[in-house]
Specification:
By secondary structure, the protein is of the alpha+beta class. The protein folds into 2 domains: 128 residues, no CATH class; 101 residues, Glutaredoxin (3-Layer(aba) Sandwich). 56% of the residues lie in helices and 9% in strands. The chain has 9 helices and 4 strands, in the order ααααααβαβαββα. The protein has a 4-stranded mixed sheet with strand order 2-1-3-4. It is elongated.
């Protein structure tokens, strides 16, 4: 196999891997299309399927050496790089990009990576058909081996993180929301004034210093706050005692979700990531009902 053929196979594997990552991302990956202004759920689903089929099809075509397949892949990745650069220019840095699954984020690195891949695909038809020497094959093999080892290490670290998040979400019970504790559902509060952004939902999490459960749930809280459609603020009992008293917060950890007008959509004491997500899900349902 020539060097051009080897590069073609490696690039095709990258493109097919991106398509497979989109498949495994599921609904979380489709939500990344909101970053690019695709707000309708049906449009997101249709576009997501189209992207997956296009990447898998072009990857297979490039691997098979079909004429102009590499140029088409270069054009596709060029469009991806332009979309990422546009999102970055609009202040969407850190938002899900959907490039390699649900966890990929918009960043200068993502733009550079996509642009580099586009250039590599564009260069495939112009590479000379040179047969590499034995030493070249040995160097290439060692490079692939060490690269695979690094990728495996990263995959194991990611798996450990997923297991940690899963342990936080094992309890099935819902968050405890008691009438008379905390602000009443549907009440208008000034809580939204304490948030600087304009996300559709504002999540206020109330914690206490020295609370072991609050410390254990901090990664879960930050994970929920990474959603671009949710703005997160944490209010400590000592530092924000007046706000605690004003809203009647019964204890910690406690979550309150308000809309853009400061109307309370949901609330409750939570002990797991699943319960905190339940508080947000209840708020989303009330928000959708209000606009229905």
């Amino acid at each position: 196999m020539t060097l051009a053929g080897l590069l073609r196979i490696l690039l095709a594997a990258v493109l097919i891997g991106a398509g497979v990552a989109k498949i495994t991302a599921g609904a979380g990956g489709r939500e990344a299309l909101r970053t690019y202004g695709v707000s309708d759920a049906r449009s997101r689903a249709a576009l997501w399927v189209a992207l997956i089929l296009t990447e898998l099809g072009l990857g297979a075509a490039v691997a098979a050496g079909i004429p102009h397949a590499a140029a088409a892949a270069a054009a596709l990745l060029g469009v991806f790089a332009l979309a990422l650069a546009t999102a970055l220019a609009r202040g969407r840095a850190g938002a899900p990009c959907g490039c390699l699954g649900a966890r990929s984020r918009v960043s200068p690195g993502a733009v550079a990576r996509t642009a580099a891949l586009a250039l590599a695909f564009a260069a495939v038809p112009w590479l000379p058909a040179v047969e590499p020497s034995t030493e070249s094959w040995l160097i290439a093999g060692l490079t692939v081996a060490f690269g695979s080892l690094a990728a495996l290490t990263l995959a194991l670290l990611a798996l450990a993180r997923e297991i940690g998040e899963l342990r936080l979400a094992v309890a099935p019970q819902a968050a405890l929301s008691v009438s008379g504790e905390g602000p009443e559902i549907g009440a208008r509060t000034a809580l939204r004034d304490r948030f600087a952004g304009s996300a559709p939902l504002a999540l206020a999490v109330f914690t206490s210093a020295g609370c072991p459960l609050c410390e254990a749930l901090e990664p879960a809280v930050q994970l929920v706050g990474a959603d671009p459609h949710v703005e997160l603020e944490v209010f400590d009992e000592q530092e924000h005692g007046e706000l605690w008293h004003e809203l009647g917060i019964p204890g910690s950890p406690y979550g309150v979700v308000v809309d853009a007008e400061g109307t309370v959509l949901s609330k409750g004491t939570f002990n797991t990531l699943l319960q905190l997500e339940g508080v947000l899900a209840a708020a989303e349902r009330r928000l959708q009902f209000a606009y229905a």
